[in-house]
Write a structure and sequence with these properties.
single chain; 395 residues; alpha/beta; globular
Length: 395
């Protein structure tokens, strides 16, 4: 999609065509395109069908109601913040008293939309003309143009002094085939530039990859790892909040686990229950904080599984009741699963090189029952723990 074809979607004919192709399934596209090209320009038809595909993909992040009204680019769908996460961040900024934000590297405007819906005035900046046009169209489509100003510009040239806060979401894809970038200095703009911009603002938030090494977090920043529905989505460096704080935020909720600098739990024998911490807790290095109220310990000093003798409610980990412990041996596992008539096998691993699908092929589970197997290490030894999800306590 180019600037011209995108602009054509914003015309009355383009809007009408988007309404007509809404809900078109991939298998129907050729027939629909053939029919519509009899009365509409071929480029416009292609652009409308492409936008319909992007809207279907975007529904998972933005919700179907918003996605059906918004405009997307392929990169915009891929790199946009999920609405639940953007809304959480916007609410934090609102609670900090922020009333205006310079949103640098704004993309198609996902974060700007959440900020505006929180009542915050936004300057959304992106240097790509097509991306900026999509952000502007989205502000209009959602009735937020009064709070969102979109500017096509290089973010390094923006004066952020008039704004209460700065939000930076550097591009973390590039190179061959748009692969992920793991070096923060290879972000666009580099993380060092974003940190410099943050230090000049009263409040700032920098969205970064959740795998960022902890030692690269500036001393004056708060580091927050966020998961949504159990999936880790991002990390955020906050400036102007609580320097040195580490937190894990679990959505929906939010449930917030704050770091207390606790030492690692001791390694102990396998108990009746195994607790699998949420990914945000693990990324934030807060397994000790999650374990504090469980009276448990670690299976292995290098593995983020907690074991305990009692079942206790916690929102920060999923509990499993362990019924069997075996040294790693596929023949013995296959015999046990056959004896228990297990046909639905969930495979989890931490500290094991065996892939779940490989294990399923080799043990060939059959039967009406379900079980979970953990491939892990216990005090350094490769081990299989078999069990099932424990009854959930209200957290």
């Amino acid at each position: 999609m180019n600037d011209v074809s995108f602009a054509s979607l914003l015309t009355p004919e383009g809007h009408a065509l988007l309404d007509e192709v809404r809900g078109t399934e991939p298998a129907q596209e050729l027939a629909v395109a053939t029919r519509l090209r009899r009365t509409h320009p071929a480029e416009l038809v292609s652009a409308a069908l492409g936008q319909a595909r992007l809207r279907r993909r975007a529904a998972a992040k933005f919700g179907a109601e918003d996605a059906e009204r918004m405009f997307f680019t392929p990169n915009g769908v891929e790199q946009s913040t999920r609405t639940t996460v953007a809304a959480h961040r916007a609410e934090r900024l609102r609670a900090l008293g922020v009333r205006s934000v310079a949103d640098l590297c704004s993309g198609i405007g996902g974060d700007a939309i959440a900020l505006a819906r929180a009542g915050i005035r936004v300057l959304a900046v992106d240097r790509d003309p097509l991306t900026a046009a999509a952000a502007r169209a989205n502000a209009d489509a959602l009735g937020l143009s009064g709070l969102i100003e979109v500017r096509e510009a290089d973010v390094t040239e923006i004066d952020t002094a008039p704004y209460d806060a700065v939000f930076v979401d550097p591009a973390r894809r590039g190179g061959r085939a748009g692969g992920r970038i793991f070096d923060p200095e290879a972000y666009s703009p580099p993380l060092s530039w974003a940190v410099g911009a943050a230090r000049k603002a009263p409040v700032a938030a920098l969205k970064i990859a959740p795998g960022i090494p902890h030692e690269t977090v500036p001393a004056e920043a708060e580091a927050e790892w966020i998961s949504d529905g159990g999936d880790v989505k991002e990390a955020v460096l906050w400036f102007g909040t609580e320097p040195g704080l580490v937190r894990a935020t679990l959505l929906p909720g939010p449930r917030v686990l704050r770091g207390r600098g606790l030492p690692d739990p001791p390694v102990r024998p396998v108990g009746r229950y195994l607790y699998e911490p949420d990914g945000a807790v693990i990324r934030a290095h807060l397994v000790a904080e999650a374990a504090a109220g469980l009276e448990g310990g670690l299976l292995d000093e290098t593995i983020a599984y907690i074991t305990a003798d009692s079942l206790r409610p916690t929102p920060y980990a999923t509990a499993y009741e362990i019924t069997d412990r075996l040294p790693f041996n596929l023949k013995k596992l296959r015999a046990l699963l056959r004896e228990r008539e297990v046909g639905v096998l969930t495979v989890k691993k931490r500290g094991s090189a065996v892939e779940p699908e490989e294990l399923r092929r080799k043990v060939r589970p059959q039967g009406p029952h379900a079980a979970t197997v953990f491939l892990t290490r216990v005090a350094g030894a490769p081990t299989m723990l078999i069990g099932h999800p424990a009854p959930r306590h209200p957290a």
